[in-house]
Amino acid sequence: MVPAWLLLLCLSIAQVTLETEDGRVLWGPQPVLVDVKDENDQVPHFSQLVYKFQLSLGTKPGIPFLFLEASDGDEPGTANSDLRFYILNQAPAQPSPHMFQLEPQLGALALSPEGSTSLGQPAEGLYQLLVQVKDMGDQASGHQATATVDVFIVKNTWVPLDPVHVPENLKVPYPHPIAQVHWNGGDVHYHLESQPPGPFDVDTEGKVYVTKELDRESQAEYLLQVRAQNTHCEDYTEPLGLRVVVMDDNDNAPVCSPRDSPVSIPELSPPGTKVTRLLAEDMDAPGSPNSHIVYQLLNPEPEEGADGRAFELDFTSGSVTLGDAPLRAGQNILLRVKAVDQGGAEDGLSSTCEVAVTITDINDHAPEFTVSQIEPVSLPEDAEPGTLVATLMATDADLEPAFRLMDFAIEAGDTEGTFGLDWEPDSSHVQLRLLKNLSYEAASSHRLVVVVRSVAELVGPGPGPGATATVTVLVEKPVPPPRLDQSYKASVPVSTPAGSLLLTIQPSEPVSSPLRFSLLNDSEGWLCIKEVSGEVHTARPLQGAQPGDMYTVLVEAQYEDRPTLSTSATLVIHFLKSPFAWAPTLNPVPTRHLCTPRQDHGVVISGPREDPDPAGGHGPYSFALGPNPTVQRDWHLQALNGSHAYLTLALHWVEPREHAVPVVVSHNAGTRQLLVRVIVCRCNVEGQCMRKVGRMKGMPSKLSAVGILVGTLMAIGIFLILIFTHLTLARKKDLDQPVDSVPLKAAV
């Protein structure tokens, strides 16, 4: 301790000033430094005279468990205040007198290696140590003081801990205690380490806490180390290991492995063929019910009326195989499978796996012709090589383009190579063509059998009957076209009326089949020709034609059954001047009747009764129907001789009524029109015309007859009602009388 007078001296002489008596400063003030030299006049002393401490068994040697504290009043940092600590005595001295060690400068009391080895017998006890503190450092001289340290040896409670199981996603307030450690010695500080780092902590009392929810899928297990340390963070003993196991909670649904491409299955694959295997993963604990996955097939559902399913699923392994139901090539099927954990329990988590399955095509369909029997084809004997005979078409039910490629061949009927086939590689059409000249004498017909095959190898049954087509080729002798005269000529007056016969076109040589005639380049439309007979008529009056002019048209004739065989000739019409008008006196035609539907009856039309032109003589008359198209359609006029014609119905049915049929009568250059009145009616079996008869006088009409019948029926009904009413009233009267009033029938 610093003396008080020394402190006062330091304060009074901190500054020195020289003044006169009157207070005038002669010098100063000037600071004065006074160096006071310390003297070891202070005795060190402990902070406590008696120290008490519990020492747990198992404490490591050399680890201080108590730090002695002492102080010295001398100047710090000098030898006078340099303290040293020593153990003077240990009681008891068994099992070793040196059970403890004391660090001289720090005063750290620890168990010695010898004491650590010897400590344990007895398990518990008291050791009393006499300790000394001395100043002046390691010098022999100096002041000193003593104190007593009572060390109580206590039981070791630092024992290994059993693993702790903490459920994941635990819903409790945090921090949540999970374990308790205890170091039985005194002055302990706990420290916790986690590997890997986790949400754990320890308090001053040794309680181990989890500070938030755990996730087993992130970390399934933690290894904690709890250390018991002194105030200098030194371990009293080895750290305790605590294994924290995170218990699984079913918080993860199964997850299906993604698939980039669809699964391809060939059509006609047998039942049981493996399609795929679903592998769903569950992040929950392996081997636990939470990760036990089973599978359920959601779709496709079996089709209505089908015998089985298209796919079968092993619910444990997730293996998908083909079922009994057939599948078609080209089908794109989406399999949806439900993966459920907890072995398919009702509260298990699930997810849906999808697998795209494509049914690929195989070459299981043989190509077939759309028509297996071709109608006979006629070819002329002089047909040129390369002529198209027929075109055949085949189809293939396969979907893959490579499986639809076809090969064609003539299988039978063409030993001489007269015919050939022509087709494109990717076409389904084949052309049968003539390669050589035909000979009617060598073969009048050819029966060709064409076969179609698949280019790719066929899977399954072979080609059926539709793989062949039969073509019959008939060889025809060449037929020459009809022959006409090189030209035909006719002279007509410009006043010739419509419908006049000009001439008849006849072939120059006999023909084998009927001909059909037509006119070409009839620019004025003056003429018309009968298609079958070849008769050329005027179609309309020759307006605009001048005497001396010529009018040229072409007449074409062709075979009825061979329209391609045709010929043509020139028809030249010379227009003449109109002659003197002649009015023939025609015999009157009485009104006749004809039957419809048509019967074998007609009307005879006669020429004039006398010729007014004696010079003209009795030349022939020509008869023709008027130019009206309806008349020409409904009626037919046939010349009987040079003076009479026969008029009949041209149609099977003509409307029953009176018809006025115009007939043009020509004689030499003169023409006149005659109206022939004909009654067309329905006829009886005898051919008599049936006429409509009016109602006879005095005969009832239909309406009056119906009225009479209705009145008669009403009268009969009223009469019957009166009879039944009378009978009913009489029976009721009999029932109302007493029994004894009814007279008895007398017995006979």
Protein architecture, described:
- It contains four helices and 49 strands.
- A hairpin with a 6-residue loop joins β41 and β42.
- It is mainly beta and 748 residues long.
- The model is unreliable at 1-12, 580-586, 610-618 and 738-748 (pLDDT under 50).
- InterPro entries: Cadherin, Cadherin-like_dom, Cadherin-like_sf, Cadherin_CS.
Biggest beta sheet summary: 4 strands, mixed
- C-alpha geometry: elongated
Terminal CA distance = 182 Å
Name the structural class: mainly beta
Provide the fold topology.
Elements: H1 4-12, E1 15-19, E2 25-31, E3 45-46, E4 50-56, E5 64-67, E6 70-71, E7 84-91, E8 100-102, E9 108-111, H2 113-118, E10 125-134, E11 144-154, E12 164-167, E13 176-180, E14 189-195, E15 200-202, E16 207-210, E17 221-229, E18 240-247, E19 255-256, E20 263-266, E21 274-277, E22 280-281, E23 294-299, E24 311-313, E25 319-322, E26 332-340, E27 350-360, E28 368-369, E29 373-380, E30 388-395, E31 406-412, E32 419-422, E33 429-434, E34 445-454, E35 468-476, E36 487-493, E37 501-504, E38 515-520, E39 527-529, E40 535-538, E41 550-559, E42 566-576, E43 592-595, E44 603-606, E45 621-625, H3 629-634, E46 635-639, E47 644-649, E48 657-667, E49 670-681, H4 702-736
Parallel strand pairs: 4-11, 12-18, 20-27, 29-35, 36-42, 43-49
Antiparallel strand pairs: 1-2, 3-6, 5-9, 7-10, 8-9, 10-11, 13-16, 14-17, 15-16, 17-18, 19-22, 21-25, 23-26, 24-25, 26-27, 28-30, 30-33, 31-34, 32-33, 34-35, 37-40, 38-41, 39-40, 41-42, 44-47, 45-48, 46-47, 48-49
Membrane topology: Single-pass type I membrane protein
Pfam families: Cadherin (PF00028)
Function: Cadherins are calcium-dependent cell adhesion proteins. They preferentially interact with themselves in a homophilic manner in connecting cells; cadherins may thus contribute to the sorting of heterogeneous cell types.
